[in-house]
Amino acid sequence: MSLIPDPAAASALSGERASRALVALAWINAQLASARGLEPNVERTLAHLREVLGADEVSVWLHAPQGLIEGWASGSVGTSEAAVRMALTGGAPGVAGEMVAAMPIVRGDRHVGGLVWRLRRPLSAEERILMTAVAGLLALELTHAEHLRRLEVEVAARTEEIERGRRFTEKIIDSLPIGLYVIDRSYRIQSWNRHRETGMQATTREAAVGRSIVEVLRLAPDDPIHREFDEVFRTGRIIEYLREVATTGEPRTFRVTKIPMRLGGTEVTHVITLGEDITDWTQAQARVSQAEKLAAIGQLVAGVMHEVNNPLATIAACAESLGYRIDPLIAQGLPEAQEAIDYLGIIGNEVERCKHIVDGLLDFSRPRPVQRERVHPNEVVERTLFLLKHHARFRKVTVDVRLDPAVERVPQASAEQLMQVLMGLLLNAMDAMDGEGAVRVVTRVGPSTEAGAIIEVIDTGVGIPAQERDRIFEPFYTTKAPGAGTGLGLSVAYAIIQEHGGRIEVDSVVGVGSIFRLILPVVAA
Q1: DSSP conformational letter for 523
Q2: Are residues 184 and 146 in the same domain?
């Protein structure tokens, strides 16, 4: 047998291998271009290569920070990292008995990995061209997939960052001590903070978002809120106003602000509504205004008291002197003398009444020096009720007393003045109930040292209308019938409690009753 290869046979074999390589390359190119995904495409490519070459194993290894790692493989022989590294650096095939060859997978100047095969013969020229082409196709696929993975990681990180920002902003909005909601031009609620879930017209966020504000707030067709929203959408101006709400009996004051919002362009796309409960603030402002008003009146009164007292004293002295002179005429039986005595009695009574008013103004404008000591509120209540229990006007009134033993003493206080205030409140309660009904006196511990002792006088009387409630502490203002009161009692009480470092609060509902609340500072025993 001749050892010289037949040129015709060799040419036929070379042509067959070239044809198979081209067919294989076309098939692999189609596989890698399919939309199945990187994993199945690479796995099918390696399996086809192993079949075409008749190899024991074909695999793809990737460069990673920890070294070369096997990414995909077809065949079950198993190749070591050392053998792959030797093959990629051009070393002799066969490390520790292994017959391994490799083709670098390179994209530009970056080494992505290697296409590795285990074959018991060397590759033909056509097969080497096939493997080089496949390595190039894999380089494109792998770098593209890596880029996509990086994009996915960046998008995921950015999405998480945006989500964290959204949650943080939502937490800020939910932590605001005000109600907040946002509507679009169709009046649909787009945002609703947690503060809107409590208090008046409470509705959960889940039940509010996406629904019409008209439906959620149960607005009447003629409700002014419609016009307010329309005006903000039309003009783009901020609207702010105060609204009184009394759905639970006690009136509350809210500051409502409607703010235009634009999502690109100049047209108002949404309206942000803020609702802040400022009842406590308005009450504090009212107390400050009342204190300023009373201080001004006190200064005025202090300037005229002596001028009034002097003529009153003169009138009283003249009336008394005339009485002495008329007495002999009465003894003579003159009828005009008796009539004169009656008139002098009227003059004396009216002078005495004026003196009581002036004395009240003195107490109000410049309280007289009194002895100060630590006073227990419970003792003040007990001593006041002891004095009143024999009072004829209290015979038909039921008094319920609830004293908290935990209440501390009031420092630098006058028991007599506090009794005067409490007695006045109890007498007013009796008048409000027309001499019949039940009154409750309660002491309890307040929320702080500055407001640590609270005394409440609660009646079941006619109540005080809201328009009168703001004026009851003004001097000479009274709701009683003419001659039944001077209108100075609550003014004096206000001045006394203020001098003790405290304040008076009033809650009242017409037809239900009133609560007068004395709030005083305390000191630990």
Answers
A1: B
A2: no
